[in-house]
């Protein structure tokens, strides 16, 4: 990467033009204009960057087109650009103002990919939509559980990505006018965070070192993907993925005797399997299996036979929908439908965070594509029971004082160990194998392996096949209390206090492992994370408060100013 040259004079405000690739054709709808008008002037450029980023689809595994556009903008500014074999991109911007001659820079980092979700769409439809149709942003009023209302940014019927706001703040720091004083800045956009941290795990350490021919080093990495506006995060849970398979026997389809019923749970709250796993949110896959295997429903007495199961849309998401196909004798259809419709469990679920739960049962044409033959009645009972034993949720919580994490005063401890059934699919054709994708998290790496061994036993004792995915394993990002005494941490904490009037909490989080994975590639690099207030992650209901967008931007600007003056 060439030594970055000094950027253009940004001492006065200017409006970027299409000619220099800076935020072209930003405002496309009245809703987007209304969104910008609700923001203070200093924050509008950040949301303009968000609108620009959203114009190019970028779900996990399909980030290259957006990264190409970002690199073109950087080249146009004369900034140094580097991309590694994994696809991660680093952009160097010279210091500004009082930080112009600094030889130690700072890294801002965020993942560019996103978990797509589209209201009312199947998993296949969601991915196709996310690859081809831009995300459209807007604002609305959000009612919180304490009765307060606040304006939030959201997308029209889709998710927008957990790190969109963090990336937009980084983009404004690179290309905008908000930052007057700053040490040399490197912004790293990683790929594949939502799919086993692929970008961070494969990141070339050269992206953390001085550029070729430059003497500028980087001692601190500020990740912008925390989702908590009142905290500084210095740790995160490790994770590992596994698959569970069942390949049951199948019988011939007899449409003269049976109807194919499809029961679907949809419109649950869903959420993030690290941030929301401890909350009272129903997990669609788990709930449907629990009901269908229960003695109260007693499918065996009606001669019902299993066909297929499908649900969830990402390994790191709490499944918001699940569908099960059941072959039912024609003379039992009405009784089975009535039983399933009138379960008390549905009302219990609606009393929590899943008040909009929908339960639908319909008869499916046996000529539809992907229809699976029935599993024998007795085997159906055993299969449903075995699959229902898969754990999903928090296994154990921290006991206060159990570990040395509290050496940082005021540090908050997350759940210790959890697992999540992210997705389930039934393969069309062949033997109709059912495949579950599960993700285990823990803030102690050894607990991940212990819990996965227990999960393996549950699967194998239930007649299934367990598959561990060694390439997915990431050790926990263990908090280092000593980081609180570094100039980097103190600058971020001071910026928080001066811009919000509050002393930030210091936390470890059950997710957000990426900065720890990256920092481990350069032992001298200190990593911490801050972010905006985001809710309903990985869901088409996703939102971020407008106030927290402004707060994050202010904190980053102030942090850069503070480091420039040191």
Kindly describe this structure:
This protein has 566 residues and is α+β, with helices and mostly antiparallel strands. The protein has two domains: 28-237 and 477-565, Zn peptidases (Aminopeptidase); 239-474, Alpha-Beta Plaits (2-Layer Sandwich), CATH 3.30.70.360. Helices cover 27% and strands 25% of the residues. The chain has 14 helices and 21 strands. The chain has helices spanning 30-37, 44-54, 64-77, 123-132, 164-175, 198-201, 284-292, 333-341, 344-350, 377-388, 445-461, 487-500, 514-519, 546-565; strands spanning 80-83, 89-93, 104-111, 137-143, 149-155, 185-190, 217-223, 231-236, 238-246, 258-266, 305-311, 322-329, 358-364, 393-397, 415-426, 434-442, 465-474, 505-509, 526-529, 534-535, 543-545. The strands form five sheets. It has a six-stranded mixed sheet with strand order 1-2-6-3-7-19. A hairpin with a 7-residue loop joins β15 and β16. α2 (44-54) crosses α5, α5 (164-175) crosses α14 (546-565) and α12 (487-500) packs across α14. The radius of gyration is 25 Å and the shape is elongated. The relative contact order is 0.17.
């Amino acid at each position: 990467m060439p030594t970055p040259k000094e950027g253009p004079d940004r001492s006065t405000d200017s409006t970027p033009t299409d000619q220099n690739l800076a935020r072209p054709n930003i405002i496309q709808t009245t809703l987007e204009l209304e969104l910008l008008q609700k923001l203070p002037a200093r924050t509008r450029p950040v949301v303009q960057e968000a609108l620009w980023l959203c114009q190019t689809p970028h779900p996990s595994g399909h980030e290259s087109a957006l990264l190409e556009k970002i690199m073109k903008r950087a080249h146009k500014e004369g900034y140094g650009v580097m991309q590694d074999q994994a696809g991660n991109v680093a952009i160097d911007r010279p210091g500004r103002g009082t930080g112009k001659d600094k030889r130690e820079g700072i890294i801002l980092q965020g993942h560019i990919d996103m978990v797509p979700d589209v209201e009312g769409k199947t998993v296949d439809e969601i991915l196709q939509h996310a690859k081809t149709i831009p995300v459209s942003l807007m604002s609305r009023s959000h009612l919180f559980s304490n009765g307060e209302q606040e304006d939030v940014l959201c997308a029209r019927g889709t998710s927008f990505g957990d790190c969109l706001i963090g990336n937009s703040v980084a983009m404004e720091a690179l290309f905008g006018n908000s930052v007057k004083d700053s040490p040399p800045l490197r912004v790293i956009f990683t790929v594949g965070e939502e799919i086993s941290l692929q970008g961070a795990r494969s990141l070339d350490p050269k992206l953390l070192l001085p550029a070729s021919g430059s003497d500028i080093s980087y001692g601190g990495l500020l990740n912008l993907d925390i989702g908590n506006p009142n905290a500084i995060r210095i740790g995160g849970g490790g994770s590992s993925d596994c698959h569970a398979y069942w390949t049951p026997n199948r019988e011939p389809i007899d449409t003269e005797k049976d109807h194919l019923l499809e029961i679907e749970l949809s419109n649950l709250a869903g959420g993030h399997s690290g941030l929301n796993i401890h909350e009272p949110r129903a997990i669609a896959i788990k709930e449907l299996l629990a009901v269908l295997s229960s003695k109260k429903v007693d499918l065996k007495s009606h001669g019902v036979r299993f066909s297929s199961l499908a649900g969830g849309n990402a390994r790191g998401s709490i499944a918001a929908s699940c569908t099960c196909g059941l072959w039912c004798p024609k003379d039992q259809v009405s009784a089975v439908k009535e039983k399933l419709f009138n379960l008390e469990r549905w009302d219990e679920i609606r009393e929590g965070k899943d008040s909009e739960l929908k339960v639908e049962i319909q008869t499916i044409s046996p000529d539809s594509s992907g229809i699976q033959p029935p599993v024998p009645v007795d085997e159906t009972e055993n299969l449903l029971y075995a699959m229902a034993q898969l754990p999903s949720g928090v296994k154990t919580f921290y006991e206060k004082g159990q570990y040395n994490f509290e050496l940082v005063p005021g540090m908050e401890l997350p759940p210790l160990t959890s697992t999540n059934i992210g997705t389930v699919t039934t393969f069309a054709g062949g033997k109709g194998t059912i495949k579950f994708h599960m993700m285990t998290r823990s803030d102690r790496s050894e607990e991940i392996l212990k819990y996965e061994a227990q999960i393996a036993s549950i699967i194998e004792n239930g007649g299934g096949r367990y598959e561990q995915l060694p390439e997915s394993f990431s050790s926990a990002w263990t908090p280092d209390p000593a980081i609180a005494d570094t100039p980097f941490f103190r600058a971020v904490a001071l910026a928080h206090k001066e811009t919000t009037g509050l002393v930030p909490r210091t936390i470890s989080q059950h997710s957000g492992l990426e900065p720890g994975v990256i920092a481990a590639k350069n032992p001298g690099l200190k990593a911490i994370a801050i972010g905006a207030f985001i809710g309903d992650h990985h869901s088409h209901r996703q939102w971020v408060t407008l106030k927290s967008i402004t707060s994050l931007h202010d904190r980053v600007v102030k942090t850069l100013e503070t480091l420039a003056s040191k």
